[in-house]
């Protein structure tokens, strides 16, 4: 999935800083709904990653029943934490 395409789909703009608060809230709600009903694993994971970037993602143990997806989400969070930590050094 393409990040810009997801941002355009849910928020109407690829630049999150340019989105009005009401539109951002509506996009987050639609994203959460779509995540809840999505059944294709890779699409579901991509939606979860976007939700995580926005601070809205459930913990991996709650978001994914499949152990492989849960582990991938945990690995993603570990990598994201390391990148953030290393950027502060």
Largest sheet: none
Strand proportion: under 5%
Number of domains: 1
Give the proportion of residues in helices. over 70%
Cα-atom Rg, whole angstroms? 14 Å
What is the count of helical runs? Answer: 5
Order of helical and strand elements = HHHHH
Secondary structure tally: strands: 0
Outline: globular
Structural class: mainly alpha
Key terms:
about 90 residues, mainly alpha, about 0% strand
Write the topology of this structure.
Blueprint: H1 3-11, H2 21-37, H3 41-53, H4 60-63, H5 67-88
Helix pairs in contact: 2-3
Give an overview in words:
The protein has helices at residues 3-11, 21-37, 41-53, 60-63, 67-88. With 89 residues, it is mostly helical. The chain has one domain (3-88). α2 packs antiparallel against α3. The longest helix is centred in the last third of the chain and has 22 residues, at 67-88.
Brief overview:
The protein has helices at 3-11, 21-37, 41-53, 60-63, 67-88.
């Amino acid at each position: 999935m393409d990040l810009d395409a997801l941002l355009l789909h849910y928020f109407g703009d690829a630049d999150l800083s340019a989105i009005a608060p009401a539109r951002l809230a509506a996009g987050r709600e639609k994203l959460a709904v779509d995540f809840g009903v999505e059944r294709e694993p890779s699409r579901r994971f991509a939606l979860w990653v976007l939700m995580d970037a926005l601070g809205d993602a459930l913990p991996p143990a709650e978001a994914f029943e499949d152990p492989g997806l849960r582990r991938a989400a945990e690995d993603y969070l570990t990598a994201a934490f390391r990148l953030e930590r290393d950027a502060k050094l």
